[in-house]
Amino acid sequence: MTKEEMLFQYCLRMGDTHNVFAHRMGEWCTNGHILEEDIAMTNIALDHIGTARAWLIYGGEVENKGRTEDDLAFHRDERDYVNMLISELPNGNFAETIVRNFMFDAFSLLYYTELTKSSNETLAGIAQKVIKEAKYHLKHSANWMVRLGDGTEESHQKLQSAIDEIWRFTGNMFEMDDIDQSLSDSGIGVDCAQIKEQWMAVVMQTVSDAKVTIPENKYMLTGSKKGIHTEALGHMLAEMQSLARAYPDAKW
Amino acid sequence: MSVDNNQGELWEVFIQSKNNLPYKHVGSVHATDKEMALQNARDLYTRRGEGRGIWVVPSQYIVASDPEENAEFFDPSVDKIYRHPTFFEMPKGSKNI
User: Fold this and answer.
1) How many other CB atoms are found less than 10 A from the CB of residue A59?
2) Which of A33, B22, B63, B96 is 20–30 Å from A52 (CA)?
3) C-alpha distance from A39 to closest chain B C-alpha (Å)
């Protein structure tokens, strides 16, 4: 694999992750429990779409086959999608959305902080922009973690169940395959294994503030970097891609 | 404020559009605590770059005048035009007044 091919894959992984995440957050539109939260979640969706575009536009340039960000987002199938598993998890109840977001947001802030040091100027530039949004996303989800965990008996229960369910998808964020390792070694990508300890510290602090616990089961699901996903992704992509595929020239 | 409707309490939102400008009332949000009030205000009222500063205040702490008392509250000032600086003529030769 050439260096360009590796960088292209790297862009797809992050671009897909943010795009899928954005779609999930967008699914909250009109379904938030209060108007304010509805808007908060769709704001976050828009942040992720912006980030997804940045990665996919650059990915298209790196690949150099004339594919646009829309081609990459709407005309690749499930097996070609390489988003992190955690991003595709269905919204579930509000606690499940918050846990999913929190686990990713804590990762995201550390990841982009590291990526600002990338020797690739485009990636460092993306990181500079995203880091502000990631800080806000983490504030939003971490506050809700504590509010729900330290709230009523029911909210506590729902938060704990959500953590127990989602925990096994967190290991996937830190996996390093040959592409990640090679890009990390050349100072372009982030060594995710390195940020895991800091991530765990952030998670443990919030989990303790929220009076919940992380499961003892250490089994972690994998596969996203090879295009292997949970069954939820296919359904989501079918809906997300249907309009662009039915009307290829559709414009906003 | 009641929390019966399960949306949290009502908070009034004030936005400062630029440094040193006064905060202006823009509306209200629901929230159960001050961080949530601030974040909801940020998400609702500064999405298009409207603000550099936000104040949120529980609506219950806003003390408002009673419209029924408008006559005694406000009417007496209507005919006192000498309270406007433009009422006075500038003395000839004065530069700073």
Assistant:
1) 22
2) A33
3) 7
User: Edge to edge, what strands does the sheet with B24-31 contain?
Assistant: B24-31, B9-16, B53-58
Shortest distance, CA B11 to any CA of chain A (angstroms): 12
Q: Which residue of A has its CA nearest to B39?
A: A140
Count interface pairs A-B at CB distance under 8 A.
Answer: 27
Nearest CB neighbour to A36, from listed B30, B33, B47: B30
Looking at domain A3-246, its CATH class is: mainly alpha
Would you report the helix, strand and coil content of chain B in percent, each value rounded to 5?
35, 25, 45
The CA dihedral of A221, A225, A227, A233, to the nearest 10 degrees, is 60
Quickly list H helices, B1-97: 34-45, 70-74
Domains parsed from chain B with CATH numbers: 9-64 (3.10.20.520)
Contacts 24+ apart (CB under 8 A), B92-95: none
The model's pTM: 0.89
What angle, rounded to 10 degrees, do the helices at A35-63 and B34-45 form?
A: 60
Distance CA B60, CA A115 (A): 46
Give B55→chain A minimum CA distance, Å.
16
Q: How many residues does chain B have?
A: 97
- Whole-complex ipTM: 0.79
Residues of chain B with Cβ-Cβ distance to A39 below 8 Å are 43-44, 47
Out of A40, A143, A147, the one facing B43 most closely (by C-beta) is A40
Tell me the per-residue pLDDT of A118-169, one tens digit each, with 9 for 90 and over. Answer: 999 999 999 999 999 999 999 999 999 999 999 999 999 999 999 999 999 9
